[in-house]
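As promised in the previous annual report, we have extended the structural survey to additional targets. Below is the entry for Porphobilinogen deaminase.
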Amino acid sequence: MENKTPRNNQDENGLKKRVIRVGTRKSQLARIQTDSVVEMLRERYLNLHFEIVAMSTTGDKILDTALSKIGEKSLFTKELENALERNEVDLVVHSLKDLPTSLPPGFTIGAICKRENPHDAVVFHPKNYGKTLNSLPEKSVIGTSSLRRAAQLKRRFPQLEFRDIGITRPLEIFLSHEGLRCMKTEKSVSVFLQGALAIEVRARDQEILDMVSALHDVETVLCCIAERAFMRHLEGGCSVPVAVNSMLKDSQLYLTGAVYSLDGSDSLKETMQTDVNYMPQNENGPNDDTQHVGITAKNIPSHAQEAAENLGIEVASLLLSKGAKHILSVARQLNDAR
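The corresponding structure token record, generated without further manual editing, is:
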């Protein structure tokens, strides 16, 4: 476990500030993302001293096996949650995609920061600069450790070949646009295809929960509740090609969900919408600590959160009624056999 001692651990009177320990993975991207969250907290809480504690997770240590083959649902979170449970850290910063839709008892997502660009990105070798996936020579090899990305691209670009690059995850060709932006490599991005940061805390630690809740972005939270509800109802994860995307406009939340066979030849896709009027209303008393797919957001009306969660479940249920269960079952079996 690595400690990073930040600046300014005394207040203007020279008194020692209370220390808040922030857990994170050791990866370059995770550190950059955590630094951005800590900076936002420092700006709001000048009387506190934030100390970053970095550690390696199971997902960081296993580099010779594809993520979809390992079977563990908490590849990038387990060690961080153990530290949180032991009170070695007070909060943990994650990429929301790394958090399972069902958190261990006693934990909750206390804040989800504003999501900038949720799309995937394609990074080309310099020799292919300026090209698109459609203009690449036939049989060109595309690397990704994501079953979902591979299935979507196989369906659209059957002339290309796809290779699992689980053993080279730190240099993965397909990255989130947000990750590329943080790492200042946008110039390498040639095409955008289809990340939010989450702060996990102890559910009973009301003081820390109240503190981080200031970073909640209402629109991002409602989109993420719907997306996580969709994934949970489908039992989606790294081992199956499941895609979901949402958009909030004029109090209408739109959710598109899809499932794919591993080779992309079979797919189901549906879009639904619901009203999530999230402007504060006169509810009976303050919102309680009810979690919606692991998220606690007391500053967002409960009716809006419930509507978002129900939307995710409805889209997933519709896909299941049309045969998604069979597609996903076959995908799991084939993935396990590979």
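Confidence is low (pLDDT under 50) at residues 167-194, 282-287. The domain at 120-192 is CATH 3.40.190.10 (D-Maltodextrin-Binding Protein; domain 2). These points will be discussed at the next consortium meeting with the crystallography subgroup.
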